[in-house]
Amino acid sequence: MTDTYSLAIDAMGGDAAPASVVAGLDLAAERHPGSRVLLFGDQVALAPLLARFKRAAAICTVRHTAEAISSDLKPTQALRLRGASMRLAIDAVASGEAGGVVSAGNTGALLALAKIVIKTLPGIDRPAMAAISPSARGDVVMLDLGANVQCTTRNLIEFALMGDVFARTVLGLPAPTIGLLNVGSEELKGSDQLRLAAEGLRASHLGPQFYGFVEGHDIAAGTTDVIVTDGFTGNVALKTGEGALKLMGTMLRQVFSASIATRIAYLLARPGLDRLREWLDPQRYNGAVMLGLAGVVVKSHGGADARGFASAVDVAMDMVVHRFNEGIRDGLARMQHVPPIAGQVSAPLARGI
Amino acid sequence: MTDTYSLAIDAMGGDAAPASVVAGLDLAAERHPGSRVLLFGDQVALAPLLARFKRAAAICTVRHTAEAISSDLKPTQALRLRGASMRLAIDAVASGEAGGVVSAGNTGALLALAKIVIKTLPGIDRPAMAAISPSARGDVVMLDLGANVQCTTRNLIEFALMGDVFARTVLGLPAPTIGLLNVGSEELKGSDQLRLAAEGLRASHLGPQFYGFVEGHDIAAGTTDVIVTDGFTGNVALKTGEGALKLMGTMLRQVFSASIATRIAYLLARPGLDRLREWLDPQRYNGAVMLGLAGVVVKSHGGADARGFASAVDVAMDMVVHRFNEGIRDGLARMQHVPPIAGQVSAPLARGI
Predict the structure, then answer these.
(1) Which of A30, A113, B170, B219 is most solvent-facing, going by the fewest CB within 10 Å?
(2) Helices (H) and strands (E) in chain B — how many of each?
(3) In this complex, is the C-beta atom of A72 within 8 Å of any C-beta atom belonging to chain B?
(4) Helix (H, G, I), strand (E, B), or coil: what is residue A176?
(5) Is A192 at the interface with chain B, CB within 8 A?
(6) Which chain A positions have a beta carbon within 8 Å of B75's beta carbon?
(7) CB of A47 less than 8 A from some CB of B
(8) What is the pLDDT of residue B350?
(9) Do A351 and B351 count as a contact with CB atoms less than 8 A apart?
(10) pLDDT tens across A63-87, in order?
(11) Which residues of A are less than 8 Å from B242 in CB distance?
């Protein structure tokens, strides 16, 4: 890749933008001092921030625009704002000026614009949304998280391929294990699509890494490094897991604030409890990634703080530096003999989940 | 209902059967002293247990059989064991001798036998599996949990109806709120089935209780009392939530066992932590219920202890005493004008999620 800039960043997206974006970029710059970043946004708002955050200023070039896409704008309306900071950042990736884009702005607009402007990578049927989540055995990559409510066998196999390359480039795993999310680990469980996807993966170059079917509890257990599922199930599973952890956090706060004795208990256990909270902190796992486009696209949570935004920049930077899309191209070439990828998707396979 | 016995119980199913079954029945008998229960199993094994657990002995009549269905038997093989304790208990429900059956034995066999022998309630297209789980705002009923991997609009509406009656009869809620699990709360999100099910529910007698779409995090938040979803998503969500709580429990144990200070912290906070653990304890929520059959069918977890088995008996007893199936019949009658229930299921709707 010979992009002039590693990343194009939308400075105006997010609840606390552009302050959180520049502060996050400053943190990320410490880890990637040699990189070059294009920063799209309002010069007047950015100038004082860059004067304060010197590491961010050292790696970025500002491209001024006063236009921005608000968080409640519909994707169809966002498409018309050709001068908006998010749009210009995406254009920079489409033109090859930058390797990837990071935005904490309007999710629907980012996904729609990225698909239309940057386009799908040749050979990939549908892009997928992936994220990293904590497990008992280390970080786990899960996809799709909502880009595709219904998936074909071919989609699931492509998600496995993209998850494999993502786990290699971002988590640094040499041979990530891959699981297909199902309602039971027996071979006969689940839909036809799942059974055919399992067959296809076993027959592919990913065969040695393919664990087979996994169940909901395997996500937090970390049974495999990559969890592949359709966008509906993945979205529900991700939010259900987060909800359960949040419930437990609320309940623990109640336990520790009950009496003087429990307040003392909290103080005694605090270092460990703080580490646990930090480990489970959604900010650390910030950055939902759109895989399968002809450029790296990372969506930071709108409410992310500087540390959260820096995590999203980290993920994008890792993908650009370790040439994520070249890994996908190589993988696709090795997939050409796998029926659902090589052949046309047959009608019953295209049916849904 | 004029069944001679409230429940028929399979004494021989479960990892620690029949001891765990009789001990559990003893606990349940304390709460339902006037009930009458048929206990199917090996008289030789049961006699000393009943001599010890007097409250259980007081409410039950033993029907001897030496035959039992092992946990690894396939449903097709289980069907042939006509003298097995589980089969005889199911037969007692089918003949009207008992109102419901509880078993901690082979899940696949129980579901298959119950469907074939007890049969589906007239007017219900497909039975569903439901369970109760903890939330920040009280207990929540979720269904389907795996009986139907693919669901039609009609199925989802029937699940909502069954969830409503279950929440009334078992949780004692006068007008439970109902949510349809989706990937976003906006009306345009999700599959056609989901949108049509939402329309159907709004038009039905459940309209005032129907909250609309809910997301994964709403399960632990307790946004609604009933969560309706297809069996694939429900199974994954239930296991994902349990997995996340288990991960948190493991991590907390590590935090508290780290040093002398944290061990003291544990002792100080122990009453609250124990209450929290008890509240989240799967044993308390033991009892997956098969709804939509012409009799009450409750599956206890195979590894349930006496307390867990007693919970399953409690749920079954509540359903029989509060005439769960009469509630379903009433609800179905009121549903007759709702298109997906009244009319025939059209081809695109029958496609599955």
Answers:
(1) A30
(2) 14, 11
(3) no
(4) coil
(5) no
(6) none
(7) no
(8) 37
(9) yes
(10) 999 999 998 899 999 999 999 999 9
(11) 216-217, 244
Confidence of residue A348 (pLDDT cuts 50, 70, 90): very low
Contact list, B250 vs chain A (CB under 8 Å): 136
Q: Which residues of B touch A273 (CB under 8 A)?
A: 255
User: What's the ipTM?
Assistant: 0.88
The answer to whether the Cβ–Cβ distance between B242 and A216 falls below 8 Å is yes
Residues in chain A with CB shorter than 8 Å from the CB of B256 are 269, 272
The encoded tokens of residue B178 equal: 């109902």
Cα gap A52→A256, rounded to integer Å: 39
Q: Which amino acid is at B203?
A: A
Classify B294 as helix, strand or coil.
coil
Torsion (CA) A159, A163, A169, A172 in degrees, nearest 10: -170
| Sheet strands side by side (includes A128-133) | A60-64, A37-41, A5-10, A98-103, A296-299, A288-291, A128-133, A140-143, A226-228, A178-181, A210-214
The residue of B150, B236, B242, B257 whose CB has the most chain A CBs within 10 angstroms, and thus the best one to mutate to test that interface, is B236
> Whole-angstrom Cα distance, residue B286 to residue A74?
45
Closest to A130 measured CA to CA, from A101, A159, A161: A159
Mutation target among A181, A239, A242, A349 for the B interface, most CBs of B within 10 A = A239
CB contact under 8 A, B268 and A262: yes
- Pairwise CA distance, residues A159 & A166, whole Å: 10
Closest residue by Cα to residue A66 from A104, A22, A18: A18
Inter-chain touch A236–B241, beta carbons under 8 Å: no
At position A54, the amino acid (one-letter code) is K
Structural domains of chain B, ranges and CATH numbers in brackets: 1-119 (3.40.718.10), 127-285+323-353 (3.40.718.10)
Model pLDDT, residue B129: 93
B351 touches chain A (CB under 8 A): yes
Instruction: Take residue B271 and report the two structure tokens written for it.
Output: 């009453």
Task: Return the closest-CA partner of residue B90 out of B22, B17, B8, B21.
Answer: B8
Q: What tens digit of pLDDT does each residue of B31-69 get? A: 888 899 999 999 999 999 999 999 999 999 999 999 999
CA distance A157 to chain B (A): 19
- DSSP bridge pairs for A102: A9, A298
Q: Is B350 on the interface with A (CB under 8 A)?
A: no
Q: Which amino acid is at A349?
A: L
Residue-level pLDDT at B53 = 96
Residue ranges of the alpha helices (H) in chain A? 19-31, 43-52, 54-59, 75-78, 85-94, 107-113, 153-169, 192-203, 217-221, 231-256, 260-280, 306-321, 324-335, 339-342
**Which carries the bigger pLDDT value, residue B176 or residue A350?**
B176
